[in-house]
Design a protein that fits this description.
heterodimer, A: 226 residues, alpha/beta, Rossmann fold, 6-stranded mixed sheet, 7 helices, 10 strands, globular, B: 380 residues, alpha+beta, Barwin-like endoglucanases, 10-stranded mixed sheet, two-stranded antiparallel sheet, 18% strand, elongated
Chain lengths: 226, 380
């Protein structure tokens, strides 16, 4: 479903501070699986997820998503794929303060031109699913860590993506909320979505829902486990 | 099409909520922006209305005025010169005018005394401008005292007060009979203040002026067009004291726009990063920033122009009154007839709204063309 063919990412190429974040990497991530990329901080996990999620282009090599080669696509098409195919959950939640939970959740769908009433209806369904209906009209800065996490998951689902990408999603959660998060990811996986998580948290990597684990260190993918 | 409209609506919706989130900052910006537009629009509206009014007044003015110069200054001109002018082919009429200034120590103001060429007041009566009437609290039927050249006091009864329509030039005017004029200013002895000349064909004006200058070498000739040009030079947006004010405001606006263009706040950058990461493309961000700039600048423009309209036409441009009313002590009430020069308002629109919109878009564009993975890398 997602394949990397000798993909490589270099930052500040040709400059004295040149840094290879990801060495030549070839791998394939199957659909309908919960896959975890495990590695310490600075190992290249986030870079790998950025490349897969069409947020950045590889310096060399190719990436295929749903059978489509995305490396050479113009930004507009890349954004379209990112919006339609992927739902992102960021380490810092990355919610926009001052907006309500509901507004944050429907934000990714604004450029699609879908009517706001229909977006709100769809969002209401997701809020119900995550048991945060009373928080829909609350500003995100008033939410607890767990509620904010559920809002970011709801935002990732608003465009009904096939793939959920989460980068260190439990970094700011306690053990209970981390387990809850992984249970939710397991549920999404069972609903037929592909889930890809980057983490070095054992609560994530050792969760029973995880089906495949890639190890990454110093920008190189190592042994695969499950 | 419906999708396109809904997309615009969604983005505008987000823009408005963004503006509301930074209410304090944006209201302050709107206030400064509105003030600048207000000042610029006030200058434009006031000067174009004055020029319009001046051109209406001067339309009735003689095409040509002949003055005599003595030692480089204007002096009385002999009425005998009229014959030499009337002889020139193309001249319809030539007449002498009697006018001068009178200092009234009671109110410390100068009046302009003028003998109308026809239908002037009867000896012993005067017609006064609204400024004089207000200064002396004089009503029709009441006497006003004037000091004659022989040192006696001459009482002249106010017959009428001039209408407010052309107050800009009539405020300090006193129309008197030729007899009373001579008593106050001095005997004319075959002299006039200046001569007015009317010609048959306006195209021949300069030729006739040359001929007069040849026949009467101690005179100078002033054409109506030259008077209009003087008004233009003073009140056009390229000249005069108001132009200085205008330039100052443009400079201030430039600083505001530059400040906006010089960068985005960390918070705004973070927001753009999040929006890109969740699926907004560069064009969507620019569209949002365009709406943001458009909402602020259009509101400020409309508000500024409306306030300027009220300031100039309802409150007589009070802020600029000392500059606009010239040197006269008897300031006119100065109610300008509403007149809007569409081309100048359009120019103002392009001078204020467009640069601001561009100034808003450029830094956003710079921030939004970067890869959205900055959010993934923990951009806070």
């Amino acid at each position: 479903m997602i394949t990397l063919d000798r993909a490589r990412k270099v930052f500040a190429q040709g400059k004295p501070n040149e840094f290879v974040a990801l060495h030549e990497t070839s791998l394939s991530i199957e659909a309908d699986r919960l896959t975890v990329v495990r590695g310490p901080s600075g190992s290249g996990k986030t870079t790998l997820l950025s490349l897969i999620g069409c947020m950045a282009r590889p310096t060399s090599g190719r990436i295929h998503v749903l059978g489509r080669e995305i490396t050479s696509l113009p930004e507009r098409f890349l954004t379209e794929i990112r919006r339609r195919t992927f739902g992102f959950i960021f380490q810092q939640f990355s919610l926009i303060p001052g907006l309500t939970a509901l507004e944050n959740v429907i934000l990714p769908a604004y450029p699609t031109g879908e009517r706001r009433s229909s977006l709100e209806k769809r969002a209401a369904g997701i809020f119900e699913l995550f048991d945060i209906v009373p928080k829909a009209r609350a500003r995100v800065e008033w939410l607890s860590g767990g509620e904010a996490q559920r809002v970011t998951i709801a935002r990732a689902l608003i465009n009904d993506p096939a793939v959920i990408i989460a980068d260190e999603p439990t970094a700011h959660l306690d053990s209970k909320l981390s387990r809850e998060f992984m249970d939710t990811m397991g549920r999404l996986r069972r609903e037929g979505r592909t889930v890809l998580i980057a983490s070095h948290d054992p609560l994530v990597t050792e969760h029973p829902a995880v089906e495949r684990v890639f190890h990454i260190r110093d920008g190189r993918i190592g042994a695969e486990g499950s | 099409m419906a999708t396109w409209i809904d997309r615009q609506k969604n983005v505008l919706d987000f823009t408005l909520s963004s503006l509301m989130r930074r209410k304090g900052k944006n209201l302050a910006l709107l206030a400064v922006y509105t003030l600048l537009v207000f000042l610029m629009a006030s200058v434009i509206l006031a000067t174009s209305a004055i020029r319009k009014e001046a051109s209406i007044i001067l339309r009735e003015a003689p095409e040509m005025v002949v003055q005599r110069t003595v030692a480089g200054r204007q002096g009385p001109i002999p009425l005998a010169y009229l014959e030499k002018i009337r002889d020139i082919v193309g001249v319809i009429s030539a007449d002498g005018r009697h006018w001068g200034y009178y200092y009234d120590p009671v109110v410390g103001a100068n009046y302009t005394l003028l003998v109308p060429p026809e239908k002037g007041p009867e000896p012993g009566t005067i017609t006064i401008g609204p400024g004089v009437a207000a200064a002396r609290l004089a009503l029709p039927g009441e006497p006003l005292e004037f000091k004659t050249t022989s040192g006696t006091i001459l009482e002249l009864v106010v017959g009428d007060v001039l209408p407010d329509d052309s107050e800009l030039v009539s405020s300090d005017l006193v129309l008197v009979s030729a007899q009373d004029f001579e008593a106050i200013i001095g005997p004319s002895d075959g002299l006039a203040t200046d001569l007015v000349v009317r010609v048959a064909n306006p195209r021949e004006l300069s030729t006739i002026a040359e001929k007069i200058a040849e026949r009467l070498p101690d005179t100078r000739i002033i054409l109506r067009d030259e008077m209009l040009r003087t008004y233009d030079a003073v009140f056009s947006w390229r000249g005069g004291i108001l132009a200085l004010l205008f330039l100052g405001v443009v400079l201030a606006f430039g600083i505001v726009a530059w400040d906006k263009a010089s960068g985005l706040s960390q918070e705004e950058r973070r927001e753009i990063g999040i929006l890109k990461a969740v699926g907004w493309e560069t064009a969507d961000i620019i569209l949002m920033k365009f709406w943001e700039g458009a909402v602020v600048s259009l509101s400020a423009f409309l508000l500024g122009v409306l306030l300027a309209y009220a300031h100039v036409f309802f409150f007589s441009a009070r802020l600029f009154a000392p500059v606009l009313k010239g040197w006269a002590v008897l300031y006119p009430q100065f109610r300008l007839v509403p007149f809007i020069d569409a081309s100048q308002i359009t120019a103002l629109f392009f001078l204020t709204v467009v640069p601001y919109a561009v100034a808003t878009i450029i830094p956003s564009w710079r921030a939004s063309v970067t890869d959205p993975d900055a959010v993934m890398k923990g951009l806070r």
